[in-house]
Amino acid sequence: MRPRTGAITRPWRVAFLLATIAIVLGAGGCATMGSIRGTLAVPPGALDRDSLRMAHRDPPARRASIRDAVAYVADENAAKPRPTGPRERRHVRETSAGFVPYVIVVPAGTTVVFENRDRVYHNAFSRAIAKPFDTGFCAPGQKRSVTFDRPGVVDIYCEIHPRDVGFVVVLPNQLYAQPNARGAFKLPPLAAGTYTVKAWHPSYGETSSRVRVPQKDGDSVHLSF
């Protein structure tokens, strides 16, 4: 059975914590540029509650980790326009383990190539508002290309394998970063100003904060659901 239109997270999601967003001034004491560093973390007990809810529902083929999150600057005018030229291409493999990678983060205008790397048929489709699409059934070794022009979270599924779930997170610019295994991230340098910084995770949803760059060294913004 196909998911309802626009569904972007699972019912068992729980709040996650954007533990710290630290503002670090640019090298050389430049007062017009700054970098945003932060740490994403799941609140104590959240994983246990998540596991309990999953036990009463059909879980996806894999569990999301903190590395599947993304932190980004949401302001569309925060970055210079991307130069015209060949569109960027990224790849998602359809395997016996599901979509690989589970979460792919791309700037708007990126073409994603879905490739069947399994021994059986697969397909990829979405009913997300940002990009409804359907690649149709693909035989082993076949590829289908989809261009994601509008920012938004696009949840993807396989018609043949209901437990296969993945996400294409389409952002308005290239001012984003995915955290490491400890949840730490660093966004690209930003000119002085006030920005909306958001964090998104496939199981725990979204959170955001307004951040001033630059500000006093050591200052931080704490944000949670």
List descriptors:
mainly beta, Immunoglobulin-like, 2 domains, five-stranded antiparallel sheet, 18 strands, disordered N terminus, disordered C terminus
In terms of topology, how is this protein built?
Elements: E1 17-25, E2 33-41, H1 46-54, E3 70-73, E4 89-95, E5 98-100, E6 103-107, E7 110-116, E8 125-126, E9 133-134, E10 143-148, E11 152-157, E12 165-171, E13 176-177, E14 184-186, E15 190-191, E16 193-201, E17 205-213, E18 220-224
Parallel strand pairs: 4-7, 6-12
Antiparallel strand pairs: 1-2, 1-18, 2-14, 2-15, 3-13, 3-16, 4-5, 7-10, 8-9, 11-12, 16-17
Summarize the structure.
The chain has 225 residues and is mostly beta strands.
Structural notes for this entry:
By secondary structure, this protein is mainly beta. It has 2 domains: 9-79 and 173-225, Sandwich (Immunoglobulin-like), CATH 2.60.40; 83-172, Cupredoxins -  blue copper proteins (Immunoglobulin-like, Sandwich). 4% of the residues lie in helices and 43% in strands. It has 1 helix and 18 strands. The chain has one helix spanning 46-54, and strands at residues 17-25, 33-41, 70-73, 89-95, 98-100, 103-107, 110-116, 125-126, 133-134, 143-148, 152-157, 165-171, 176-177, 184-186, 190-191, 193-201, 205-213, 220-224. Strands 1, 2, 14, 15 and 18 form a 5-stranded antiparallel sheet that branches. It has a 4-stranded antiparallel sheet with strand order 13-3-16-17, with no helix packed on it. Strand 1 (17-25) and strand 2 form a beta hairpin. It is globular and about 55 Å long. The two termini are 31 Å apart.
